[in-house]
Amino acid sequence: MERQHGVTVQKLLMDIQLVEDAKAVILEGLKEHWGESFDVNFNEDLVNFESHYLVSVVETTTNAPAMYVALKDGRVVGTGALIPEDVQEEIQSCCNTEDFAKVEERKVMRIVRMSVAKECRRCGVGSVVLHELLRVAKQERGCTDLVVETTAGWDDAVAFYLHNGFIPQGVRDGDMHFAYKL
Predict the structure, then answer these.
(1) What CATH number was assigned to the domain covering residues 3-181?
(2) Which end of the chain lies in a sparser environment, N or C, as judged by fewer CB atoms within 10 Å?
(3) What is the rounded CA–CA span in Å between residue 41 and residue 135?
(4) 3-state SS of 28-48?
(5) Which pLDDT tens digits describe the chain residue by residue (182 residues)?
(6) Residues in contact with 83: Cβ distance below 8 Å, sequence separation at least 6, in sequence order
(7) How crowded is the C-beta side of 128, counted as CA atoms within 13 Å?
(8) Domain locations in the chain?
(9) How many separate helices (H) and strands (E) can be counted in the chain?
(10) R_g (Cα) of the chain, nearest Å
(11) For residue 171, how many other CB atoms are within 10 A of its CB?
(12) How far apart are CA 157 and CA 139, in angstroms?
């Protein structure tokens, strides 16, 4: 559990109020960025939030998705999630056995749904959440690599990942892709 700037980051479990507050922070950021054209129904993970991000307290698999929330004064002010990244497509595209072995040894997770409440931006909340995700991915999940993507034109998000050591991998379909070696 990360604690900085008066913010505590914890794994989100089945607390109905925290779940609703986490979804509200995520939706606030998406609506702010995309405007009235944003439709939650095109985001299956937000429509079925609980089944995508919340697992049983007794869930022990290191590949289970997990949502983390930043709390300040008992209120959700930030979110971020880790989900397993399927590298099978990459493995199948490798043409020699040496490349295959390199990819096969990797354990990759994807960071998704990083969001900070508007009034808490540029106060370190996003960095606190990100550092907790990095810690969990490496120490608890045994990951070797993390990936993340954001809309290429979302300048603040792109700058955030660059500032935190993520390496650009290119732009595809309007999204900037990043990688981070743990």
Answers:
(1) 3.40.630.30
(2) N
(3) 32
(4) HHHHHHHHHHCCHHHCHHHHC
(5) 555 668 889 888 878 888 899 999 988 888 888 887 888 888 888 888 887 777 654 455 667 788 999 999 999 999 999 988 875 454 444 444 454 445 445 689 999 999 999 998 888 999 999 999 999 999 988 999 999 999 999 899 999 999 999 999 999 999 999 999 99
(6) 52, 65, 109, 110, 112
(7) 25
(8) 3-181
(9) 7, 8
(10) 16
(11) 13
(12) 25
For the whole model, what pTM was predicted?
A: 0.82
The helix or strand, by DSSP H or E, that contains position 51, with its residue range, turns out to be helix 49-53
For tokens 């049983």, what's the residue? 56
Phi, psi of 171 (to 5 degrees): -110, 130
User: How many residues in total does the chain contain?
Assistant: 182
Question: Number of C-alpha atoms within 13 angstroms, CB side, residue 40?
Answer: 13
pLDDT for position 87: 53
- Which two tokens mark 154? 């979302």
Distance CA(16)–CA(128), nearest Å, equals 23
CA atoms of 41 and 60, how far apart (whole Å): 30
Contacts for 166 with CB less than 8 Å, ≥ 6 apart: 148, 178, 179, 180
